[in-house]
Write a structure and sequence with these properties.
Elements lengths: L5 H25 L3 E6 L2 E9 L3 E4 L9 E5 L5 E9 L6 E5 L22 E6 L8 E11 L4 E4 L11 E3 L5 E8 L10 E5 H12 L15 E2 L7 E5 L12 E8 L4 E7 L5 E6 L5 E5 L8 E6 L4 E9 L6 E10 L12 E9 L4 E2 L6 E9 L4 E7 L5 E6 L5 E6 L6 E6 L4 E9 L6 E9 L3
Parallel strand pairs: 13-15
Antiparallel strand pairs: 1-2, 1-4, 2-3, 3-6, 4-5, 5-6, 7-8, 7-10, 8-9, 9-12, 10-11, 11-12, 14-21, 15-20, 16-19, 16-21, 17-18, 17-20, 22-30, 23-24, 24-29, 25-28, 25-30, 26-27, 26-29
């Protein structure tokens, strides 16, 4: 076998070593400032851009949330207040609560022009399960009209909001959209240029509006609140949300204090709903609260005026037929209770006076009752305003049973108590943003 002279092997070996060292250096410089974000049932990534706890991420990651859970690279967890969120550009600012020390942070941007072919690096939390993942690629294309950087660096759901970096470890973009028709990987991802993010931060710091008026150029359809079914089709010609999903726009006239139910059903797309108040502020969104992949929002309107509904799909680019209907419902009457069987009855309100669960930032209230061994009891947590979550602790402080309900239907537990003593009941919201009035009942079952 003929061996090439050692000197001929040296250049590629050195080049490989240099590339590896660049990868390692970029990761060491940037990864401490990259965070994971849990936002309702979504996950995403973000970058600390101020040592005092200011995080930059994608608008669609925190859409509909006022608070999120942020996990740092060193596993520290913080509650984050959503200071501002925008649909165009798809950016948001989150302020971490309780920061007592300077955190690692990255500065935005570079004075050097971005060029097609230059190396780039992405760090994030793909699928919400692999925090701190580094991927590499190149700038595949520049889109000056939309101020986007196209890259072939591997991006997956959960990378949204994370940084795109150059070989100096400088933040040159915010990862925002993955082009993946029919969920097939394409190696085409997009990041918002740092200059756009810088202007967005300046706007937020100066108190400017960060959310565009998305209704300004679209003529919405009128939606009645009498349960009438409207049949429509999402098409490739419809406008898109920042995540790439098409949408149809609807409006209805609502009265403050009335509770409405909005339902979107489809066999062709994964239904997704967003509700805005008359000021254009987002009130609620939903993906799968209806049957199967159907969407449903139940909400008590805060004021009189014209409300806006976005009927969309959870998947970017999906098209197909759907039905939409809305109606006013009466709040459930206080049910008539047999006082002889009632062990505990409370009307409560999850909100600012409730405790906060450190695990996910959700509100919860705790109640106690005396039970005896062998006693059969039924626990019910009923609400129209959030997804209820009910937990029962035994006298030994261990969880005996837990149950998740859906809005409009109670979370229920039926159990034969194992011992005599004091039991604790936790009234909780399954979704961290859940808040509102509820009825908690514990009654003895005679059978």
């Amino acid at each position: 076998m003929y061996l090439l002279p050692w000197v001929l092997l040296t250049p590629p070996v050195l080049a490989q070593d240099i590339n590896e060292q660049v990868n390692i250096r970029v990761y060491r410089l940037a990864s401490p400032a990259v965070v994971s974000i849990k936002s309702g049932n979504r996950t995403g990534s973000g970058t600390i851009v101020d040592p005092k706890g200011i995080v930059l991420t994608s608008g669609h990651v925190v859409r509909g949330q006022s608070q999120v859970i942020v996990t740092l690279a060193n596993k520290q967890r913080f509650l984050g207040n959503v200071v501002a969120a925008s649909a165009n550009p798809d950016l948001a600012v989150v302020k971490l609560v309780g920061v007592k020390e300077n955190l690692p942070a990255l500065k935005l941007g570079t004075t050097e022009p971005i060029q097609v072919g230059q190396r780039v690096f992405a760090i994030g939390d793909p699928f919400g399960r692999f925090a701190g993942t580094l991927t590499t690629g190149i700038v595949s294309r520049l889109d000056p009209d939309r101020q986007l950087i196209q890259t072939d660096a591997a991006l997956n759901p959960g990378n949204s909001g994370g940084p795109l970096l150059n070989s100096k470890g400088e933040l040159i973009g915010i990862n925002t959209v993955i082009f993946s028709p029919n969920n097939v990987p394409t190696g085409i991802g997009f990041a918002i240029q740092a200059e756009v993010a810088r202007e967005f931060l300046r706007s937020v710091e100066s108190g400017g509006r960060s959310s565009e008026d998305r209704r300004s150029t679209i003529v919405p359809r009128r939606l009645t609140l009498d349960g009438q079914v409207v049949t429509e089709t999402l098409t490739p010609m419809d406008p898109r949300l920042p995540d790439g999903s098409h949408y149809k726009l609807f409006e209805f006239v609502g009265k403050g204090g009335k509770t409405v139910v909005i339902e979107m059903s489809s066999r062709e797309v994964d239904a997704y709903l967003v509700l805005l108040d008359p000021r254009g502020e987002q009130l609620a969104e939903d993906d799968d609260s209806g049957t199967g992949s159907d969407a449903r929002i139940t909400y008590t309107l805060p004021m009189d005026g014209v409300y806006t509904v976005y009927a969309s799909s959870y998947e970017g680019g999906a098209v197909g037929r759907f039905t939409l209907r809305a109606q006013v419902i009466d709040r459930p009457p206080r049910h008539v209770l047999d006082p002889e069987n009632i062990i505990l009855y409370r009307v409560g309100n999850l909100g600012e006076r409730s405790r906060v669960l450190a695990k996910d930032g959700s509100f919860f209230d705790v109640y106690s009752f005396e039970g005896r061994a062998g006693q059969l009891v039924e626990l019910s947590l009923q609400t129209e305003e959030f997804q209820p979550y009910l937990v029962l602790f035994g006298p030994d402080q261990k969880v005996l049973e837990q149950n998740k309900g859906i809005m409009g239907k109670a979370a229920m537990i039926v159990i034969r108590l194992p011992q005599t003593g004091q039991y604790r009941v936790v009234a909780n919201a399954y979704d961290p943003k859940g808040r509102g009035e509820y009825i908690l009942t514990v009654r003895q079952v005679n059978r």
